[in-house]
Design brief:
Layout: E1 12-13, E2 17-21, H1 27-34, H2 37-40, H3 50-57, H4 60-64, E3 66-71, E4 74-84, H5 93-96, E5 100-107, H6 116-131, E6 136-142, H7 146-154, E7 158-169, E8 173-183, H8 184-190
Parallel strand pairs: 5-6
Antiparallel strand pairs: 1-2, 2-3, 3-4, 4-5, 6-8, 7-8
Length: 191
């Protein structure tokens, strides 16, 4: 099963978007929207300094798991695609290696409400299942991040978890968290 992103025929094109692996040259374009308060409120790291952001963005793991979303040649969002191993018993752990991914997304606020997130994540699911041969994807969010969990539902992901005050938000304190997932066979059936 291929998991190497070089196996994907980049860029992946949708009706309006082009999706490709991030490069160091995408630093300033992603920084422009990731520093916006409406975006950074929900991100794992709130970074207010460009140099600190550069250190994170250009890190080997971060760059390797980030895809950028372009519309008419402009970066309008980014996606996280982190291939991982699910839990498995020791005797079959090797068979489980690299069979699922955690997904994430950000859309520039100036492009919100236009269906770009839905279009990009729909393409991301195709990358995961059709190109990388994964069997399962998952995504997590704060329950208060309505836009994120609604997007998960629009693209066919199933809510698997609703956890009461399990997620510590830097400003809001302990919040409820949600987990969504989709299996490859469920994705194929929906197509």
């Amino acid at each position: 099963m291929p998991q190497d992103l070089t196996a994907v025929p980049w860029p992946i094109r949708t009706e309006r978007l082009a999706i490709r692996p991030a490069t160091p040259g995408d630093l300033d374009a992603t920084w422009a929207f990731r520093r916006e308060p409406s975006v950074s409120e929900w991100l794992t790291h709130r970074i207010s300094d460009r140099e600190e952001y550069a250190a994170v963005f250009l890190g080997e793991e971060r760059l390797a798991t980030t895809l950028v979303v372009e519309m008419d040649g402009e970066v309008v969002g980014d996606l996280m695609l982190r291939v991982e191993d699910p839990w498995a018993q020791a005797e079959v752990a090797e068979r489980a290696q690299g069979t699922q991914a955690e997904l994430g997304w950000v859309v520039a606020p100036s492009y919100a409400g236009r269906g770009i997130g839905t279009e990009a994540v729909t393409a991301l699911l195709e990358i995961c299942f059709a190109h990388l041969g994964l069997r399962r994807v998952k995504a997590l969010c704060f329950a208060d991040n309505t836009a994120s969990w609604r997007l998960m539902e629009r693209v066919g992901m199933r809510r698997e978890e609703y956890n009461v005050r399990d997620s510590l938000h830097r400003d809001r304190g302990w919040l409820d968290g949600m987990g969504y997932a989709l299996l490859e066979d469920e994705w194929r059936a929906r197509r």
